[in-house]
């Protein structure tokens, strides 16, 4: 849980940095490529190919390609089809996908995860809902593609970790994750990138360096590690904790407008979903075996 809370705080700052210094100024495909490249460079020196079999390496690369490469491709395209409030609103369905995919991959059905995930969606919706314009269905589907990729990457990582030794040194294999993301990010930039919209100021380069080395490199490693240490319900809920966290950071540092009552109400609903999930997990652990 500590991993997820820490990365939530980390990524809350990242969204504001992107919105203030990069969005509409730096080519998004280049930003993704540089972030993935820098993150990959962190882990390449630690890479020990012998620790994983060929299929396991390919699985980790595929997870990186989906969770980062394909997800970002969908995500940045959605801004061409929707307003920013609509994009943020439609990302709140990720917890439901996590709950469903986790049950599917682990061969079970856990209704409480669906309930708590829906509560997390409602809480995030209270915070982020700003109305919807007509003609948004294509954009809605594109955002859901991004949500599914992010959810599948997290749940797939949980499933892969369950089949590997608990003593595995993940920092010695995580480079494969970013290599997989690079396989998507590099062709995407070569095909769709705009070389005339590269970073032009030291601040923009600095923000990209921080996003690549810290937010992507440290962030995705810690987030996926956290995903293996909590139940699916907690993971689903924490995916929407970024909404209030991001708004608080934006309000305190950049003084952007925020609806404080809605922020508080939505955060309380999400906290209630986390409490309900924790209560159910505790009850299941203490229940006598039948």
TrEMBL record:
The record places domain EamA at: 3-127, 138-275
What InterPro entries does the record tag this protein with?
A: CO/AA/NH_transpt, EamA_dom, EmrE-like
Task: Determine if Transmembrane helix is one of this entry's keywords.
Answer: yes
TM spans, by residue?
29-46, 58-75, 81-100, 112-129, 135-157, 169-191, 203-223, 235-254, 260-280
Chief subcellular site?
Answer: membrane
**UniProt subcellular location:** Cell membrane
Q: Which Pfam families would you find in this protein's record?
A: EamA
Which keywords belong to this entry?
A: Cell membrane, Membrane, Repeat, Transmembrane, Transmembrane helix, Transport
Recorded superkingdom: Bacteria
Membrane topology of the entry:
Multi-pass membrane protein
**Alphabetical list of NCBIfam families matching this protein:** 2A78
Q: What is this protein called?
A: DMT family transporter
The protein's organism comes out as Halomonas casei
């Amino acid at each position: 849980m500590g991993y997820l809370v820490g990365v939530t705080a980390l990524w809350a700052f990242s969204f504001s940095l992107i919105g203030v210094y990069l969005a509409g100024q730096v080519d998004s495909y280049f930003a993704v490529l540089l972030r993935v490249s820098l993150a990959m460079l962190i882990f390449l020196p630690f890479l020990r190919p012998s620790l994983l079999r060929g299929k396991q390496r390919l699985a980790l690369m595929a997870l990186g390609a989906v969770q980062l490469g394909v997800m970002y491709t969908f995500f940045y395209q959605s801004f061409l089809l929707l307003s920013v409030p609509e994009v943020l609103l439609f990302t709140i369905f990720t917890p439901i996908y996590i709950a469903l995919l986790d049950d599917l991959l682990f061969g079970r059905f856990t209704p409480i995860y669906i309930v708590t995930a829906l509560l997390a969606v409602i809480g995030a919706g209270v915070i982020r809902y700003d109305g919807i314009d007509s003609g948004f269905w294509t954009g809605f589907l594109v955002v859901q593609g991004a949500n599914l990729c992010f959810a599948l990457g997290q749940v797939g990582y949980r499933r892969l970790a369950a089949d590997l030794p608990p003593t595995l040194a993940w920092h010695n294999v995580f480079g494969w994750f970013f290599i997989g993301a690079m396989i998507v990010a590099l062709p995407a930039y070569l095909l769709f990138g705009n070389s005339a919209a590269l970073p032009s100021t030291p601040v923009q380069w600095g923000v990209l360096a921080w996003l690549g080395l810290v937010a992507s490199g440290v962030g995705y490693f810690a987030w996926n590690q956290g995903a293996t240490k909590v139940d699916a319900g907690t993971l689903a809920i924490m995916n929407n904790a970024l909404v209030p966290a991001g708004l608080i950071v934006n309000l305190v540092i950049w003084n952007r407008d925020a609806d404080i009552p809605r922020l508080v109400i939505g955060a309380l609903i999400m906290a209630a979903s986390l409490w309900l999930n924790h209560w159910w997990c505790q009850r299941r652990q203490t229940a006598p075996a039948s």
